[in-house]
Design goal:
alpha+beta, 23% strand, four-stranded antiparallel beta sheet, five-stranded antiparallel beta sheet, disordered N terminus, 265 residues
């Protein structure tokens, strides 16, 4: 929430399964409330963030599903939410929406408090070493870049085996960063592609542009998106009324949703 006079926290990452658009909004809010402010207190059971006290928040960046908070002194706080994590921003003294024991990192910047809850990945690293990080260095183009680098996505996809299903490829963060299960299902439905289709048989460029367009609208414009396919197993397709099917499949073992009529195998 942008209004510092309103009731409730300044920002809460609301989605239960964070994807690139959720992280983008978290970075936007953290940037607004923290950048340019010195850290007045910090605590964590995972990393020595006490070193940040007195340092100034210099930048906040979302990179795919990763969130990076950079400090003027040359350190970066890297968090990855996976399935459980969330960033909240509160006013000093305000009651938190989650229990304190779930707080992996607490950063206080005067009258603002940023709390990272339940993130499986929390790292404090020298900013100069980001280019050598085993995960960050290999990330594909960010799906929320404007515009997304489709040519680089196609180049990276070209190095994948031909039998890799498109549903798996869209979740591969080294091919394109930021797409999660929700948006891969939605993009495949919009483009009428079955998730088990071998990726060379699809128009990957169009799928990437579609996912980017959907996510851009949700992340940047604040559009409310009603899922057309995700989470609707057994319910009628919004296009043709055929019951939607779902199954766990692929190397990620994530549940895919599809319409057997609109997205034939």
């Amino acid at each position: 929430r942008a209004d510092s006079q309103g009731a409730g926290p300044l920002f809460v990452a609301a989605r239960l399964v964070p994807e690139g658009d959720t992280i983008f909004r978290a970075a936007t809010s953290l940037r607004k409330w923290l950048v340019g402010r010195p850290v007045t207190a910090a605590s964590s059971l995972k990393v020595p963030v006490e070193r940040l006290v007195g340092d100034e928040v210099e930048a906040v960046e979302a990179r795919g599903k990763h969130l990076l908070i950079r400090f003027a002194g040359g350190l970066t706080l890297h968090t990855h939410m996976r399935m459980t994590g969330a960033w909240h921003v509160y006013r000093a003294g305000e009651k938190w929406r989650k229990p304190r024991h779930l707080a992996g990192v607490v950063l206080e910047c005067g009258d603002r408090v940023a709390v990272c809850f339940s993130a499986p990945v929390v790292e404090l690293l020298p900013t100069r070493t980001e280019v050598l990080h085993p995960v960050l260095a290999g990330l594909g183009p960010d799906i929320l870049s404007a515009p997304v680098d489709v040519d680089e996505v196609l180049r990276r996809a070209g190095g994948q085996p031909a039998d890799v299903p498109i549903g798996d490829l869209l979740l591969d963060q080294q091919v394109v960063a930021g797409i999660g299960n929700i948006w891969r299902c939605e993009a495949l439905f919009v483009c009428r592609v079955h998730p088990a289709t071998a990726h060379p048989a699809t128009d990957l460029a169009e799928l990437v542009r579609t996912a980017s367009r959907l996510m851009q609208a949700h992340a940047r414009l604040g559009a409310t998106y009603r899922p057309q396919i995700y989470g609707r197993s057994g319910r009628p397709c919004l296009r043709c009324r055929t019951p939607i099917e779902s199954a766990r499949a692929g190397r990620h073992a994530r549940t895919a949703y599809w319409c057997p009529r609109c997205q034939p195998s």
